[in-house]
Hints:
Layout: H1 29-32, H2 34-50, E1 59-63, H3 69-76, E2 80-85, H4 88-96, E3 102-106, E4 121-125, H5 134-144, E5 151-157, H6 162-168, H7 183-190, E6 195-201, H8 214-223, E7 231-237
Amino acid sequence: MNLAENTNFMPQKSVSHFDFDQVASSYDSWYESARGAMYDRVEKRAIDKLLADIDKQSRLLEVGCGTGHWSRYFSDKGFDVTGIDSSEEMIKIAGQKHIPNSRFEIADGRNLPFEDESFDVAAAITVLEFTTEPEKIISEMVRCVKKRKGLLIIGVLNILSGYNQKRKNKLGSVYSSAHLFSPQQIQNLLGRYGQTRIQITGFLPENERLFWLSSLWEYFGRLLRQKNGAFIAARVDL
């Protein structure tokens, strides 16, 4: 989940390290900022590539849907979306958006309330970093996805990114207690379930006055196969 960086959070004993109810009303403001909008674009381009050959009328489970920001993206792609989140306030806002072909409910990602192989795709975008048991959540997602042509779509924040390190080192930030992942850690976490493809993106200048050069930053970051982009996107074919 992408969050405004100057917000403090209280820990809770649940699927998440934090009480996201407290920030639900301001959650979407990140995507309205210049930096948030820029990261949002490059993250979605990476997920676009991973979904390029998938039937977009498939049933998709989104774990940690928050206020429905990515739910709208998946809905716009043609998926039939079921979003779950442990935050009641987040789910309330997601439902108020009236996103087509989407439904939302409160649930714990460690114990999903769905039958085995109920979905074609399961997705979790910037969620695992803020959970107490990411391995259990992945296991539950796998259980709920069809084993023939089913897949997972995962997006996480990269611990090798200098920008993410600054966010993590900021006292009182949500990121300070988050567990960020390296590309190799994501490969290790997901590779046991099937063929895994990983893309690294988010090679953006830290100075917003240089955002007009973002396309070049991205191009050279991918060309040189750098590992320190801010966002890791992964697809697992089960």
